[in-house]
TrEMBL record:
This is Probable membrane transporter protein. It comes from Afipia broomeae ATCC 49717. One of its GO terms (cellular component) is plasma membrane. Keywords: Cell membrane, Membrane, Transmembrane, Transmembrane helix, Transport. Belongs to the 4-toluene sulfonate uptake permease (TSUP) (TC 2.A.102) family. It is a multi-pass membrane protein. The keyword Transport applies. InterPro entries: TM_pro_TauE-like, TSUP. The keyword Signal does not apply. It is found in: Cell membrane. The chain crosses the membrane at residues 6-25, 32-55, 75-93, 100-118, 138-159, 166-190, 196-215. The lineage of its organism: Bacteria, Pseudomonadati, Pseudomonadota, Alphaproteobacteria, Hyphomicrobiales.
Amino acid sequence: MELTVVTILVAFAGVFLIAFMRGAFGGGFAIIGIPLLSLVMDPVTAGGLLAPLFIAMDLYALRYWKPSTWSKPDLVVLVPALVIGIGCGYLLFRVLDHRAIAIMMAIITLAFVALWLLRGADVTTQPRSTPKAIAAGFTSGITTMVAHSGGPPLAMYLLPLGLSKAIYAGTTSMFFTVGNAIKAVPWLLIVKPTENVWILMGICLFAIPPGIWVGWRLHGALDQRQIYRACYGLLTVTAMKLLWDGVSGYLV
């Protein structure tokens, strides 16, 4: 990867956008910023660039999403399943059909959003389910390892619980703090970043504090209903991006 001014500016903007999502919604929407990075580098290089930066985002985000914002009963079930999912995702990374996984995840996510709209597009409350939590954590682990798209499975479990906006964001943030720390090493082993990639990482670190802070300010300005509607809207955008990635991969 050639380190040009355009590459630096686009990568910086992409990392800022991802950090903004982390500050506003707790994480899970990294794929929203990946299209920007794909303008100047291939997706695998982008994955290697982002893996350590995710950890930096997570550590900085702990200033805002403290333990009081974590839903510990959910994390106790979600996190072990996440760890197993990441392990399976790493083992299957080279043999999985990424296009088929992207299409399947997109269709499931769009169906989930459609059901929410049919119910009246409002904050719903459903009881916790251990099997659903295990399935969400495991699926999120696989998809976050394969495509940095672990947000939809987690959101499909957490959003129907009707958690407060702070608890939802804090729980999501902590979930991906664990996941990103675990998957960083496998991603770096797969990608083996070059010197230019490491330099670009160092530059992009400066995008993280302002990105998270601006996102956190937006979170504070929105009420519960607006946050949930924004999350469902972002899920739709994420699903459409996954669908495009999968379908276009077959067309090439």
